[in-house]
Amino acid sequence: MLGRMLVAAAVVAVIAEVGAGARQGPQAPADPFDDIVVPSSPAIRLFQPPTAAIAAAVAERALQAADVRYGFEAPPADSTIPSIDLAKLPDQTTDLAGRKLGDALNVIVQAAPQLRWSRADGVVVVRSLPDGVGLLDRKLTFYSVTNASLRTTLEALVQAIDPARAKGAGIYGQGRSGGSGAGPTDPNAAAAHTVTLTVGNAPVRDVLQAISRQMNPLRWTIRYDANPPSPDTASIALTTKDEIVTAASPFSLRALQQQSPAGPPGRGGPMPGAVRIPISPSLNVMLSNYGGQTGAKISVEEIGSAPSLSPASLMSVILPPLDLTGVSTADAIARLVAYDSRYEMSQAHGRFLVRPKPGTPGRLALLDQPLGALSASNEAAGSVIDRVAAHLGSVSPRPNAPGSIGAAMQTPISVTLPESATIRDGLDAIADATGWSWSFQPQYAPGFPTSVSLQWRGPSWMMSTNARLTTDLSPAPAPSHLPARPIPDALDRTIARVPLAPARTDTLGVFDQLGRAAKVPMGIELLPPAARSRDPRVMTRPQPPIVVGPGKFSDALYFLLEREPDYQVISTDPLVNVGPKLMASASSDFMNQPIASFDVKNEGLYHALGSLRHVIDPAYLASDWQGSGAASMNRPVTLSVDRATPRSIIDQLVAQHGGLLWVASFEPATIYDQARAQPSDWVLTLVPIDDSGIPVRMEPVRDAAASRPIVGNELRTARPSGPSVQFDLPASAARLRGTLMMLGREFRQPIGSEVIVSGAPLGPQSPQYYDLTGLPLAEVFDKLVSFLPEYAVTTDRGVVHFQPKALAADSNAWLNRKVSRVDQHFDNLSDALHFVAALGGPGISGARSSSPVSNAPPGIGVTPPSTPMPPGVSALADRMKASITLSMTDVTIRDVLDEIARQSGTMSWSVDHRGAQATLTFSGFDGWTSGVSIR
Questions:
Q1: Which partner for 622 in 68, 610, 713, 874 could form a disulfide, CB atoms 3.0-4.6 Å apart?
Q2: What confidence tens digit (pLDDT) does each residue in 276-297 have?
Q3: 3-state SS class at 269
Q4: Spatial contact of 449 and 469, defined as CB atoms under 8 Å apart
Q5: Per-residue pLDDT tens for 417-476?
Q6: Percent of the chain at pLDDT above 90?
């Protein structure tokens, strides 16, 4: 016993010495940690102000993305308090991509001081609890393992923390030992994945750090499933590259036992009976997930969506799932509904109804309308659904659905409802007769009749019935929050529904249209537009109108400002001034530079503004307006001010007039020059809001011989004939795949492409594009390479390759990976797709072994295809039918894909890399696509 204690004390002393050296000893000249950067994909953003749960989740996401060894202690979970409100946007968003990892962690802990981070012995540790609280500072009397697997290592740690706990209870996982993995066959590989450690009187954190040092790379996490944080509520996980083992807390095990008489899980596989709901931007998705796991009867009426900003859309991807294991159905649904403050819950006859609260914009009462008596006897469920939906509007014909959906729609049901029944009662009756769930969602297109969608969900399928109403019920688009400078009541107005044409011209746009519709005097300053390309193939798509109202002018303005984040309200006295954020705060901008004195008396407005322009640009000579609306434009004004800016002077003159708004824009001398925010390019436009005439422009003085008129698309050449191919601008790899798919389809040319995608996912379709129509295929590829010079084009026996130069030269790149032998036959391209994806392995985008793989025996290197696509499941199955026979030796994965494309003759392939993730996609020339993740 004494010998064992001496050994333990010596080991503890070593741990303490290593930790002290990391904290106090001299640092190496170059610390590799200082070079670790948070990658740009997947997007990692901190929403402020964050809750502790959000901040901790962002920190863990950053650690995972940076691919470092780390220890992580999450804050105690509390499923009764929602970590976000999907109805609200955050006040501020901080993008962590591209920051050094240490800087990113500092940003997080500054926003959430309850978190802290440190680094010792190459392991980054993030903690959420004070010293002495929780598990990490709890001292273990004795801990010892010898050549232990990851599972045995964790089992021994749990026993040391809680000796009363049954051995092995709640231990589950996946990977090498006891999980889904087959385990290593090489004894040396097995030894590299074991732990030998003996310590005594050491805190849990030091033991975890010692384990992490031996099994590199290893990450450890502690999550508290409830308050207070203790051994009873702590779940511990150890994770390596190919194995994860978790010890579920006794608290969570008791919840499982209450829910399932089967008791706690065994030693293999995930815990049965657990109810964990991923946090989604859609409350309906979370409720559907819960209903699918538990069988709860839930009916959902959604607010619907109009074209606007999506609420907290990225927040969901960083949050841990909501654990509702053992929670009663009513409480669980109430906790889910609390994640969106716009909704409420009620219960009747064993069914839960979730719908928008009264007064919430977008709440419709359509389902409260009378249905009348409804009777059906052994009638097909689809027929009864259509009869009920017809009371809402014109029902779209349902296509014949094959497989499980078609069979479900033919399910015979019987229902009987009285004369007092509502449409909602009819939907509930169908759901009760079938066991399905339904949700109702309006689909708004402001300015057009509203459509509604009834979604039905069965055990493994979803189907929609759509009805078109006769009226437009779209709610007025609302801003997510008020700006820093609100509009005063004296300048606010009530507006009707107003469609605003985006980017009407370079000098007039949505802000002046709104001001004119609301008859609110405004001063609007616009950013200089980009120079027009001399290439006639650079095209601009017409954009749909932005519809605002009915409601307040201020709400519409705030909504537009959220769509145009470069602009802000500059001032509200005496006019509502809107302008670019950068220019409004720049002292060098001429609109912000005070004029010593300015004095006009009973001078026509147009002449007075000309006098101001003369002060700014002496070459300009003031005059009265001679065109249409002269009586209004020459209305006399008087003003005498000292040390006033041009903006302030224009505001006061226009406010005296009372019937105008003004727009300051910038136009270059020619359409191909870049406009500058300077007097020589300044155009001042006066827009009547009193219907006294048309807009009047005050242009800069220019040498007519040296300038060309501003013209429109008359310089464009006629659209060439040939296959229609467009490349959205600005050019990016994310926009490339769609264009390459279009090229393959239009030219019927097999293309193998590989792209590296970074940054946030693309938003709506770009308004500008490059028209490649009519160009020969070789010229098309030359043009694409000119846009993206980091890519190159090659050909190989009839297949065109478009790929990054860096990956083409990388022998470890996935497509360059060698396959020693392939002997396979496929009856459809879906099976071929999954077969090739199985040639991948862990760490697709990182360093990997370049040793060849073989398809024999299955499970080593090459795995068999996933479950084949059942024939007749959809039209896609028929379109993907093909006879592909591969008999190849000593080839690359790219060679395998090329051969599939050649034998098919009707498809292209592409590989998209996004961070550590990759997707393989087949694209048919007749428009179908099918993709799969590479793992």
A1: 610
A2: 888 888 899 899 999 988 989 9
A3: coil
A4: yes
A5: 999 999 999 999 999 999 999 999 998 888 789 999 999 988 878 888 999 999 989 888
A6: 47
Tell me the three state secondary structure of residue 5. Answer: helix
- For residue 275, the model assigns a pLDDT of 86
The type of residue at 651 is: D
Q: Model's pTM, two decimal places?
A: 0.67
The answer on pLDDT for 501 being more than 50 is yes
Q: At residue 934, what are phi and psi to the nearest 5 degrees?
A: -95, 125
Tell me the β-bridge partners of 569: 578
Residue 861 has pLDDT above 50, yes or no: no
What are 711-729's pLDDT values in tens digits?
333 333 444 566 678 899 8
Backbone phi, then psi, for 314, in 5-degree steps? -90, -10
Closest-CA residue to 600 (of 637, 627, 563): 637
User: What is the distance between the alpha carbons of residues 883 and 904, in angstroms, rounded to a whole number?
Assistant: 8
CA distance 218 to 148: 14
* 3, pLDDT greater than 50: no
Output DSSP code: residue 606. Answer: H
* Residue in 392, 380, 381 with CA at minimum distance from that of residue 436: 381
Give the Cα separation of 364 and 451 in Å (integer): 12
Element (H, E) at 245: strand 244-247
Contact 604, 624 (CB under 8 A): yes
The amino acid that residue 70 corresponds to is: Y
Other beta carbons less than 10 A from residue 88's beta carbon: 14
> What is the reported pLDDT for 39?
83
SS3 annotation, 683-743: EEEEEECCCCCCCEEECCCCCHHHCCCCCCHHHCCCCCCCCCCEEEECCCHHHHHHHHHHH
Per DSSP bridges, beta strands 751-756 and 799-804 are parallel
Residues 6+ apart with CB under 8 A from 27: none
Helical (H) or strand (E) element with 414: strand 412-417
**E-only strand ranges, 734-798:** 751-756, 768-771, 791-796
Tell me, what's the pLDDT at 507?
57
- 3-class DSSP state of 524: strand
Residues ≥6 apart with Cβ < 8 Å to 281: 86, 310, 311, 312, 313, 315, 316
CA distances from 624 to 289, 338, 628, 630, 682 (A): 69, 63, 12, 8, 19
